[in-house]
Amino acid sequence: MKSAFEYISKTSKNIFLKKTSEHSSQIKKIYRQDGITLEKEIEYNKYSGNIEKITKYNYFDDKKISSIEEYKDGKKFKETNFHFFMVVTDYDITSGKKVRSTNYDLKDKSKIISKYDYDAKTEKIIRISVYRPDGKTIAFIKELSPTTGNVSRCINYKKNSDAISSVSKYNIVGETCIRTTYYYQTPIYALTPDTIEKQILTDDINNKVLNNQISKNSARLIDKLYKNKDKSTIKIS
After folding, report:
1. What's the confidence (pLDDT) of residue 25?
2. Domain boundaries, the chain
């Protein structure tokens, strides 16, 4: 009579177990209804019984992996999906909620396509980082409100550089842009998304002179409009 470690399943309900002394684990293989096509492999710690890894296989080709889930002390901390690109999702090991998802080029896994950061409480996306074709430098970052899900700020970076080129702030209710600040001076190289507010405040102070001049020009224009209200055309200097 065959032991449980030698038994090969012919249905999806039965299992095949294998001892791996290196990691002190057991591997359970689950097959699809045909009893031939492999659906997934579940790796357990043979002492604690906790799941360590789940490997799922492509429905049409069981030689191709569709996803890998990794566990620590029975709790999932990472999941990697292989579809149009490779998606690696990190989880908070305490709450079990998503922390970050990183999308990689499936043909060149060293290249990052984009990153998604999640709110620790709601698990909603709060930041999207989109990378350039080189897979290393960031093109722009969009920050989203954890309550509405609307864009609150967009940070654009200069090409082939970590330098910030502009920051746009949005009305999170209507998701309309209310202000864009452009950066051309050398201090931009020291800025990060976390310290950008400090530079924006500095720019606001520096722009007061310009704003005052704009206000004066507006007042002059209004006066001229009233003085020339009976004329068909108004010359603005």
Report:
1. 83
2. 1-82, 83-203, 207-237
